[in-house]
Amino acid sequence: MPSFDVLQAACPSRSVLRHLTDRWTPMVVAVLSDGPARFGQIRGRVEGVTAKVLTETLRSMERDGLVTRTAQATMPPRVDYELTPLGRTLVTPLAAVRSWAEQHAEQVLEARARYDDTVD
Amino acid sequence: MPSFDVLQAACPSRSVLRHLTDRWTPMVVAVLSDGPARFGQIRGRVEGVTAKVLTETLRSMERDGLVTRTAQATMPPRVDYELTPLGRTLVTPLAAVRSWAEQHAEQVLEARARYDDTVD
């Protein structure tokens, strides 16, 4: 069994960790944890992401095996994105980090204000 | 109770999430989860980080209230970094994401290779 360790500079798990914690990946995983969605639906829920950057994020997630992209033969054509079984195993750990950010945002903002007061 | 939601563009929890998932923060939290450490010790364990970037990461973590920096009145002076109680609550969620990266690195690398074969 190979041993991966993100603390080692040459370990490929580092690039995996980088992708998971890309700016938009945790939010896309959150949206797709509710089920498959079309590009426009994802973009509607992840506020502030540009079409270009969301396209890049989804492509990178597809390349990493986290998301499938399925073109439906409808008119107009329609593309659905869905978490793969591998992608679904990410929902819980990423939700824990996201939820930490939401639950502790106030404490962090207060800490920043205190720090900035001390430094000024 | 205020409601924070990282999916909302203006929500301050977004910047909190960004900091948690900064390139080096999960690794520094991992190292400090074993107890207080000096700058050089942290740098020795987080392979590949430059002194400049580690300094910036630790300062940002200190500002966010995750880490304390204590100067010891020794000769030469010595500075210890330690997780605050708030920082310690991050150990488990960040370890889950790091450990996902390590445990699934192989699957992700295989998915990338398959994807790149298809695209070429």
From TrEMBL, chains A, B:
Keyword Magnesium: no
Chain ranges of the HTH hxlR-type domain: 11-109
Keywords: DNA-binding, Transcription, Transcription regulation
GO molecular function, one term: DNA binding
InterPro entries, per database record: HTH_HxlR, WH-like_DNA-bd_sf, WH_DNA-bd_sf
DNA repair is among the record's keywords: no
Full protein name: Helix-turn-helix transcriptional regulator
Phylogenetic classification of the source organism: Bacteria, Bacillati, Actinomycetota, Actinomycetes, Micrococcales
